[in-house]
Amino acid sequence: MTTLELPSPRQEEWRWADMAALRNAADAAPRATGIDPSALFLDIAGPRLLFVDGVFEPAHSRPGAVQLLPLAPETAHPLGQLAQGEGWVLRLAAEAAADPVQIVHLGSGGENHLPARVVLGEDAVASVVETYAGAGWANRHTQISLDRGARLMRSVRLVQTEGFVSIRDEAVIGEAASLASIFLGAGAMGSRIDGALTLIGKGAFAEMGGALLTSDKQKQEAAVAVRHEAVEGTSRQLWRAVAADRSTVSLAARVEVARAAQQTDGEQSLRGLLLQRGATVNLKPELEIFADDVKCAHGATVGELDRKALFYLQSRGVPEPRAKALLTRAFVADAVSRIGDETVRAAFEADADAWLETAL
Predict the structure, then answer these.
(1) How many degrees, rounded to 5, is the angle at CA 73 between CA 232 and CA 126?
(2) Which pLDDT score is estimated for 3?
């Protein structure tokens, strides 16, 4: 058995975390996945990197501008600290632009840890697409630094058939820079998506959100904190949760506005959909504001499918399962539609549709 030192649910910030599922995934014996790694890459140009159990696999990779370097992240995060060793680094000079970078993480069982770093110079532009598949515990820590005017689009899909995925993002966003990170949890694994985004420059923009879909007794969770330290910053946290059977989704979103961060615009939108009465969605929006000239809002709602809308579709000849799928898809699309690349967005929508076919 593993001797991992893990956070305790007795700690407030970890009270919803499924540490038992994480530990079980870490202890699982590796076995063949039967998954063709090439099928996990999307049909788009740009660098491709495959990591099998956290180790770079060159046969299915073409790194391009992405480097493989030893990394030792400086973080106080209890899971992020474990992600040390050789990782991937994307570093772009000022005004540079890169084709989308695809990172595929394929696990066979047991635990694996991988650090990453994205550093964009002034006005540089990049897109990163990550896919998690297979089994085991995949633990990741990503450090992001965006200089003035830099833009990063990050799209992450979790489609592991079992195990656990833990992700810790730590980002520093400079003047007029933009970070958009969209996640889709549509696999059968447990998950914890953790984010700490700090806006340090005037007019910086940060978005972190997505959709988590659970069934059976599965648990998925997101816990994101955005801190505004400069004037005229904008942040968005838009999360959608869909829980079926006796599963659980937990969403915690926090916005902190420092005294100097006047004219901040921060928005949180947390919405949960229960497909059965035995499912659970936990929502925890938080605002901590020390500036007096701000526009911050949060909304948190949990409910079931609209019976009137269901009745309307059925009265038009749509079978009940199909009607439920259409309404649920529209609910999830609100988050996934924020992905800019059409091919990437279509892949995420297909993953959500595949989940719906098994859950409804």
Answers:
(1) 50
(2) 59
